[in-house]
Write a structure and sequence with these properties.
This protein has 10 helices and 7 strands. With 237 residues, it is of the alpha/beta class. The chain has one domain: Rossmann fold. It has a 7-stranded mixed β-sheet with strand order 3-2-1-4-5-7-6, with helices on both faces. Helix 3 crosses helix 4. The protein starts with a helix and ends with a strand. It binds S-adenosylmethionine. S-adenosylmethionine binds next to helix 1 and helix 4. The site of S-adenosylmethionine (SAM) has 21 residues, from helix 1 and helix 4. InterPro entries: Methyltransf_11, SAM-dependent_MTases_sf.
Amino acid sequence: MKGKKWYRKEDIAEEYEPKRFKGLGGKYINYREKKSVKKALGNIKNKKILDVATGTGRFSIMAAEEGGNVTAGDISLPMLEIAKNKAKRKDLIEELDFIKMDAENLPFRDEEFEMVMAIRFMHLVNEPQLFLKEMKRVTQKRIIFDTFSLLSLRVLYNKMLPMGSTLYKKKDIQKIAKNLDLKVKNKIDSFTMPFGFYRYAPDFTIKPIKNLDEKISKNQLGKKLSTVNYWILEKQN
Ligand SMILES: C[S@@+](CC[C@H](N)C(=O)[O-])C[C@H]1O[C@@H](n2cnc3c(N)ncnc32)[C@H](O)[C@@H]1O
């Protein structure tokens, strides 16, 4: 698991957001990801939520803004430091707990949280079932995570990514859910054009392409070709 070490380097942590979410395309990625995760979370007011691999805290802070009682964890201290500073700037530091942790062995009791999420994490992992089993242990009901699809335009550059990135077939996740006795409650298919396009395309191309992307994403072909899939799994009881 290369990503476990990759983000622990200070310069990599500092570059994380400026590299990915600047410019019109970058801002659009951030906006559209948050929209999907918000939908997957549903009403989280006063709910106890764990964000595994919070990184710079994008989704933890968003969940705290939505009224969630959020614990944000990551293995990288430099990433956590950035997340904490962001929460301070937004006057949300009291609403969040930041903890250094390894997703392989979460430092929490069984069923300590009402929901557990891990965004942009599964692509760093070689054995997803192991991590999902651990997330299942600490959640009372719901697990939310995203995967990057093998049947998508992301294949064009995925192998070049320095932190390593695993692509999944939808049936891989369905099989893991079955093995772990988890129900696939919902799946949100998003981004026909991969993140790499939005990161590097000139600003004037973003609006027409994103409009087309959103339109295609609603039909069956778009869903099949989606580069990002948000999974909502639930315990059966
Ligand atoms: C691509 S970033 C995603 C951050 C955030 N969720 C987001 O979407 O912006 C991946 C994060 O996973 C963290 N990570 C990698 N391996 C981990 C592990 N075993 N346990 C906890 N965090 C880990 C990295 O430090 C990094 O912050």
